[in-house]
Design a protein that fits this description.
By secondary structure, this protein is of the alpha+beta class. It has 3 domains: 67 residues, wza like domain (wza like fold); 79 residues, Outer membrane lipoprotein wza domain like (Outer membrane lipoprotein wza fold like, Roll); 107 residues, Outer membrane lipoprotein wza fold like. Helix content is 24%, strand content 27%. It has 7 helices and 18 strands. A 6-stranded mixed sheet has the order 16-15-17-13-14-18, with helices on both faces. A 5-stranded mixed sheet has the order 7-6-12-9-10, with helices on one face. The protein has a 3-stranded antiparallel sheet with strand order 2-1-5, with helices on one face. A hairpin with a 7-residue loop joins strand 1 and strand 2. The radius of gyration is 33 Å and the shape is rod-shaped.
Length: 303
């Protein structure tokens, strides 16, 4: 008669053999997936358990290979540190250096982890990111947009040079929902917005970024954004200074008649300057050159 204890042990052994692959798969799935891939220029720290003479700090070559202390090199580019460790272990076995090596690889320096944020941000620079980040996070690292920034920004992918546009919406939910991912090594370009200016006797003289709205500004819209015209202004003598291929030209703008609906509103072009003179006679004769020079030092507003 068969011993019951042996029979139970046999059943447990069979059960463990059946369940082991499934448990291993679950454990593997539970482990976090590494998103950091090794690339040329990375400085790696290679440790071989109980074999201090094989420990090294080496940089990955432009060909994507890592030179080993034991001789030769291995291809590690586009691998995770764990995958690179397995490749080094295989190389040590194949070269008859060790029978059962246990290797640990860590990335000490990774120039590919930097993201460059350029243009109209508060602190343009290169910032370290270890994993893909939201474009909003990356802009926050650079201090956010300046007042003169265009909200239509561009993300250039490292390697492929693919250019991905993104609009930084004034609406928080839209900006978050449509946010794209920035990868280590990418470049974020924030161009300068097209500006129009309202100068002279207006409530809030300065430049206004046209990128903050979905359509082009008009003269009356710009007047409203600039706080309107106080009683000391002369709207009937307003002028529009516009740059052309032949230089600056002055266009009479009868704002009082526009506001009364007696004249059609006029769409603005990037760089246009609306000038409303003061009631003082000496200010009525200010020339275009002086107005253009004033625009260069004007405050820039977002809306």
């Amino acid at each position: 008669m068969r011993n019951p204890t042996i029979r139970n042990l046999s059943n447990l052994l069979v059960l463990s053999l059946v369940l082991a692959p499934g448990l291993a798969a679950q454990q593997q799935a539970a482990q976090p997936q590494e998103s950091l891939l090794i690339g040329p220029g990375d400085l790696l720290h290679v440790q071989v358990l109980d074999t201090l003479e094989l420990e090294e700090h080496a940089r990955v070559t432009d060909a994507g290979e890592l030179p080993l202390v034991s001789g030769g090199s291995v291809k590690v580019a586009s691998l995770t540190p764990i995958q690179a460790a397995r490749v080094i272990e295989d190389a040590l076995v194949q070269r008859n250096i060790m029978l059962h090596p246990h290797v640990l690889v860590t990335v000490e320096q990774n120039p590919n982890q930097m993201v460059s944020v350029l243009g109209e941000v508060q602190r343009p620079s290169a910032y370290p990111i270890e994993t893909p980040r939201s474009v909003l996070d990356v802009l926050a690292l650079a201090g956010g947009l300046t007042s003169g920034a265009d909200r239509n920004i561009l993300i250039e992918r490292k390697g492929t040079k693919e250019k991905i546009p993104y609009f930084v919406s004034n609406k928080g939910d839209v900006a978050v929902d449509n946010a794209v991912t920035v990868n280590p090594g990418d470049t974020v370009l924030v161009p300068k917005a097209d500006l129009v200016y309202a100068l002279g006797d207006v409530g809030r003289p300065g430049g206004y970024a046209m990128a903050d709205i979905s359509s082009k500004l008009s003269v009356l819209e710009l007047t409203s954004l600039a706080g309107g015209i106080p009683p000391t202004g002369v709207p009937g003598k307003a002028r529009l200074i516009r740059k052309t291929d032949q230089g600056y030209v002055e266009i009479p703008i009868p704002l009082n008649k526009m506001e009364q609906g007696k004249r059609s509103d006029l769409p603005l072009q990037a760089g246009d300057i609306l000038y409303v003179p003061f009631s003082y006679l000496r200010n009525l004769a200010v020339n275009a050159a002086a107005i253009v020079a004033t625009a260069g030092n004007a405050a820039v507003y977002r809306f």
